[in-house]
Amino acid sequence: MNWKFWKKNKDKNKKKKSAGREWLDAIVFAVIAATIIRGLFIEAYTIPTGSMERSLLVGDFLFVSKMSYGARTPITPVAFPFAHHTMPITGTKAYWDGIKLPYYRLPGFGDVQRNDVVVFNYPMDADPPLNRPVDKRENYIKRCLAIGGDTLKIVDAVVYVNGKPADLPEMSQTPYYVKTDGTEFNPLTLKNIKADVERVNNDEYVVNMPKGEVEKIKAFSNVKVVTPIIAQAGSFEQQVFPNDPHYQWNQDNFGPIIVPKEGWTVKLDSLTLPLYKRAITVYEGNTLDVNGTEIKINGQKTDSYTFKMNYYWMMGDNRHNSLDSRYWGFVPEDHIVGKALFVWMSWDENGSFFSKIRWNRLLRGIH
């Protein structure tokens, strides 16, 4: 006898999902899973500009680890899936900034180290007219040359960190003035040299190349002069950080400057304010008023400030074709996205049909 006759047969009453509902469930699951993976573990990025040439090339597709420094939890949680800050077709905002969460980073494998290749949010997107939230600012990729507490200086295009020359990546590019006897370069010969050649006139060229290629160019029979193109010390470039005539700096002769560190206290005066005002106000959210020699932060008179975050100094390996910290200063720790791991795909837009893919760069590690 069936003593459970009063129980309904659940299998009979359960309706089978329609094909459309099954597809919808699968899509929702895939979106949620992909969002979690991209947000907490690993994400793909592409190289759109030549600022890291030739360490990284335009058209390289990278995997970036969020776990290396700890994944940053969403600051602007309401956003369209897989869109960063702008919808791809309409160009409208892909997020709603009516809800903003405080910055928090999950534990990671370590901290940002000198010489790491790092993806981060572009700090200047905080300014009008964009005024984007931190996690919706444009993604940039550069090499970290100095971390919080370091003193950085650039002398004749050589970067010094804490008084010692920083490691120069093997493929880091520098422009050189090249003068020939008027004879043109052999295109086949140039093809075997990692250099970008721009002709100025009949016998003068600007050649952007790694240091290791210089001797190869010098060995050409038609080459008479090879000289690095470096800005002179003391020549002021207005667009160079901190954009203040007190500091007669340019992209090749810069500093010294101390990179802020969490807990570091800086004395505030007419010389330090140009260097640290943006970090104090824009990145750490304070109000700052200066009236003569009187300085007020959040309405309180003071002559010093203690930083709440660590900061970093980022530069491109293509030193003379890179918009980097020399032009907009420090990168705050809440802007850090992740560490570049390896190139999984590389696409040469100018290559022929069979050479569009740079096969020698596939699965190449980033150093």
Instruction: Quickly count the helices.
Output: 6
Question: Can you count the beta strands?
Answer: 21
What's the main sheet like?
A: 8 strands, antiparallel
Helical residues, percent: 10-25%
Q: Please, what is the average pLDDT?
A: 91
Give the ordered list of helices and strands: HHEEEEEEEEHEEHEEEHEEEEEHEEE
Protein structure class: alpha+beta
Low-confidence runs of at least 5 consecutive residues: none
Shape assignment: flat
Query: Gap between N and C termini, in Å?
Result: 74 Å
Whole-angstrom Rg? 26 Å
Beta fraction of the residues?
Answer: 25-35%
Give the structure's gist in a few sentences:
Strands 1, 2, 3, 4, 18, 19, 20 and 21 form an eight-stranded antiparallel beta sheet that branches. The chain contains six helices and 21 strands.
What does this structure look like?
With 367 residues, this protein is an alpha+beta fold. Helices cover 14% and strands 28% of the residues. The chain contains 6 helices and 21 strands. The longest helix is centred in the N-terminal third of the chain and has 22 residues. The protein starts with 9 loop residues before the first helix and ends with a strand. The model has no long low-confidence stretch (mean pLDDT 91).
Short key terms for the protein model shown above:
single chain, 28% strand, alpha+beta, 367 residues, four-stranded antiparallel beta sheet, 6 helices
Itemize the secondary structure elements and their pairings.
Elements: H1 10-13, H2 19-40, E1 42-46, E2 60-65, E3 117-121, E4 139-147, E5 151-155, E6 158-161, E7 164-165, E8 173-180, H3 187-191, E9 196-199, E10 204-210, H4 214-218, E11 223-228, E12 254-258, E13 265-267, H5 273-283, E14 288-291, E15 294-297, E16 300-301, E17 304-306, E18 311-315, H6 325-328, E19 331-332, E20 336-346, E21 364-365
Antiparallel strand pairs: 1-2, 2-20, 3-4, 3-20, 4-18, 5-6, 5-12, 6-7, 8-10, 8-11, 9-10, 13-17, 14-15, 15-16, 18-19, 20-21
